TrEMBL record:
Bias (Basic and acidic residues): 18-30
SUPFAM superfamilies assigned to the protein according to its UniProt record, in alphabetical order: TPR-like
Protein name: Tetratricopeptide repeat protein
Region (Disordered): 1-42
Sequence ranges of Low complexity compositional bias: 1-17
Length: 348
């Protein structure tokens, strides 16, 4: 029997996540005003860091994430002046760009916990003119992008710690309660758990990967029931990831059922948005369909249903050719050639 592994969807999931979140990030980064750019010329970086350290205590950039309770137990002065200084420094880092992304994430995290601490105690921070909701969303998105882009650079523990910082923030009520609608909180949590699952799978920790992806699916099913945004398309991507994990665990029948759920949700999305589908939506649906049908073929091969497997490979090949997806097209063509040459046990 000639069997193949399911198509590795780790990098593809990274690309899909980027497409899902890139518009939001671009929109938020465009909010940097000309006045903020002018601040770059007027600020003295070292003076600001020294002042921050005097007001808020030394910041250990290598320290692990600390909860709000741990932070507030420290003997440090937390007031609106400290918050104002953080806002200014973050504006400076945003203008500076990606060269200081680690410092930016650290400062954004500190800003959000400090702001939530003050808001819980009735402080008036409106005069600071920073958007708490968008700042939180931007932090979570940037953490996820960094985790996915740094998969070959950072170690496993560093990646898990990085994503945990975003997850912990989204589970901290004084922060997530200020993000409306709540469906947006779920959307961000889903992003985190999907990427967490990908990291576990890359490290062959399949049971942990399955737990993480199931957490994502639980929340996505809520969004599907509420008919929220592009939830049908998004959950299809997550089902495909789950199917790959189940295949690694030898659960081939379960993997087939999961892939069928992905295809059903893609079809629901296509019907619901048929009149308003954008070019990017059409591309993503076809892209996911190629992966789904290829993996469906692999699972049927594992179970010796060769004719079904051949049919699904051919469907995947046709869609791949439509997309001009050269790498995948070549892969499927090679698989079909080998199937013709090698005698197969056929259960059909």
């Amino acid at each position: 029997m000639n069997q193949y592994n399911q198509f590795d969807n780790y990098q593809q999931q990274n690309q899909i996540n980027k497409m899902r979140e890139s518009r939001s990030i671009e929109h938020q980064e465009q909010k940097i005003s000309q006045q903020q750019r002018q601040q770059e010329e007027n600020m003295h970086n070292q003076d600001m860091i020294d002042t921050m350290q005097n007001n808020m205590g030394n910041i250990n950039q290598t320290a692990n994430f600390q909860s709000q309770d741990e932070q507030t137990n420290k003997k440090e002065v937390i007031n609106t002046n400290s918050l104002k200084l953080l806002v200014k420094f973050i504006d400076y880092l945003k203008v500076k760009g990606e060269s200081d992304v680690n410092t930016l994430l650290l400062m954004q995290e500190r800003l959000l916990y400090t702001a939530s601490y003050l808001l819980e105690r009735g402080a008036n921070i409106h005069e600071l003119h920073f958007d708490f909701k968008n700042e939180t969303i931007q932090f979570v998105q940037k953490v996820n992008l960094k985790a996915m882009e740094s998969g070959n650079v950072l170690g496993f523990d560093e990646l898990i710690n990085l994503l945990s910082r975003a997850i912990d923030m989204l589970l901290y009520k004084p922060i997530f309660s200020r993000i409306e609608p709540f469906s947006k909180v779920l959307d961000l949590r889903i992003l985190c758990f999907n990427n967490l699952s990908c990291i576990y799978r890359q490290n062959k920790m399949y049971h942990d990967a399955l737990k993480a992806v199931d957490r994502a699916i639980e929340m996505e099913e809520i969004l599907v029931r509420e008919n929220y945004g592009e939830s049908n398309k998004n959950i299809a991507s997550t089902y495909i990831n789950k199917a790959v994990i189940m295949s690694e665990l030898g659960l081939h029948l379960e993997s087939i059922d999961t892939i069928k759920k992905a295809l059903d949700n893609m079809e629901s999305f296509r019907k619901e948005w048929e009149a308003n589908l954008e070019e990017q939506d059409i591309f993503q649906l076809k892209y996911l369909s190629v992966i789904a049908y290829f993996n469906l073929a692999v699972e049927h091969e594992h179970l010796f249903y060769v004719q079904y497997a051949k049919t699904f490979y051919e469907i995947a090949l046709n869609i791949s050719r439509e997309l001009n997806y050269g790498e995948m097209t070549k892969t499927i063509e090679n698989v079909l050639k080998k199937m013709k040459k090698v005698p197969q046990v056929n259960k059909n």
